[in-house]
Amino acid sequence: LTERLAAFKNEPARTADGHTVELAVNAGMAEEKLDGMVDEADGVGLFRTEFLFMQSDHFPTEDEQFHVYKQLASAWNGKPVVIRTLDIGGDKELSYWQLPAESNPFLGMRAIRLCLHEQDLFKTQLRAILRASAYGCVKIMFPMVTTIDELRKAKAFTEQSKAELRAEHIAFDENVEIGIMAEVPSVIQLADRFAKQVDFFSIGTNDLVQYTLAVDRMNEKVAHLYDYFHPAVLRSIHSLIQAAHREGKWVGMCGKMAGDPLAAPLLLAMGLDEWSMDAPSVARQKFRLSTLTVGESKLLLEKALDLDTAAEVRAAVKHWNQSQE
Ligand code: PEP
Ligand code: MG
Fold it and tell me: Which of 3, 271, 276, 305 is most buried as measured by Cβ atoms within 10 A of its Cβ?
């Protein structure tokens, strides 16, 4: 199998019926070795900037951040790099910034909420990302957006930062794409409205499952209820992709589901445009896609969307796999 995987490594991800999708990699940890991934993957679908903040003993300055983002953008030689703005709160903390304790941190001051509250912090990061956009194909993504109002504010800050850079004659990409994570159910419900105001979505299944099924992603006692094959999650993903495509916007996925070979036929059938996963999953998912066809996968999706439980969906997908062999 290793040899068969090696043969696919640096080829584009292509299904058995010749359909290509973008396979990207998730990154963020400084110690992560992404050597070789620049050839293997089509880009970075999620750069988690929080690790840069967590591994520092102070708020990284604009120049410190710029240096990291610029290196990343240049290393990828023009392939897209989606940089996500700071996603702390919830389970992620900073040693040098004591946030007030909350009884429901995952429903509290987290991610974009925190950034819109701490505007200097947010603008420093936006300026650093924008400056890096002059050195590659950088896209900006906001985490945990829940309301259109948050999106408007985050975009306004981006515009302000652009205006400042222009006035200072500092280079950046005027057409930098702006997208949001689709990881809160309100974004699924309002997908048609959000789609008019973003360039792209990236589905964060890790949180989308937690918020759709009301299951704490860190709580082992309810881990048996945490499943992205739940029909409510599948329908959410499906309807988001349809709404985005109606507006001509692309949809990625950077939650764990994107790298799961079992989920691949469902995501392929839904028309997911960009799949982003941890580095070790890329070759395996490329291989998996090479065995699938869009037509057959669509038949499976139709069946799956008509089932009642996650267990039924899993069983249907496994059964379908066996029938394909
Ligand atoms: C997600 O929620 O699926 C995601 C990719 O973001 P994180 O795991 O960093 O919350
Ligand atoms: Mg998330």
Answer: 276
* Residue 93 annotated as part of some ligand binding site: no
pTM for the model: 0.96
Identify whether 115 is a catalytic site residue.
no
Residue of minimum CA distance from atom 7 in ligand 1: 206
Using CA atoms, how far apart are residues 215 and 219, in angstroms rounded to an integer? 8
Q: Does 48 sit in the ligand 1 pocket, CB within 6 Å?
A: yes
Q: Which listed ligand is nearest to 84 at the C-alpha?
A: 1
Predicted pLDDT of residue 111: 97
- CA nearest ligand 1 atom 3, residue: 204
> Which pair of structure tokens corresponds to residue 183?
């990881």
E strand intervals along 214-318: 250-253, 274-277
At residue 30, the pLDDT reads 60
CA of 322 to the centre of ligand 2 (A): 33
Please write the tens of the pLDDT for every residue from 224-251. Answer: 999 999 999 999 999 999 999 999 999 9
pLDDT at residue number 72:
94
Q: Over the chain, what is the mean pLDDT?
A: 95
Tens of pLDDT along 116-164? 999 999 999 999 999 999 999 999 999 999 999 999 999 999 999 999 9
Percentage of the chain modeled with pLDDT above 70 = 98
CA distance 196 to 125: 25
Work out which ligand 1 atom sits closest to the CA atom of 255.
3
Q: Which ligand is nearest to the CA of 205?
A: 1
Establish how many alpha carbons lie within 13 A of residue 246's alpha carbon, considering only the half-sphere containing its beta carbon.
12
Q: Is 50 in the pocket of ligand 1 (CB under 6 A)?
A: no
Please, are residues 296 and 264 in contact by the beta-carbon 8 Å criterion?
no
Q: Distance between CA atoms of 262 and 258, rounded to whole angstroms? A: 10
Q: Which residues of 206-216 are buried (b: 16+ CB within 10 A; e: fewer)?
A: bbbbbbbbebb
Going from the Cα of 254 to the center of ligand 2, the distance in angstroms, rounded, reads: 9
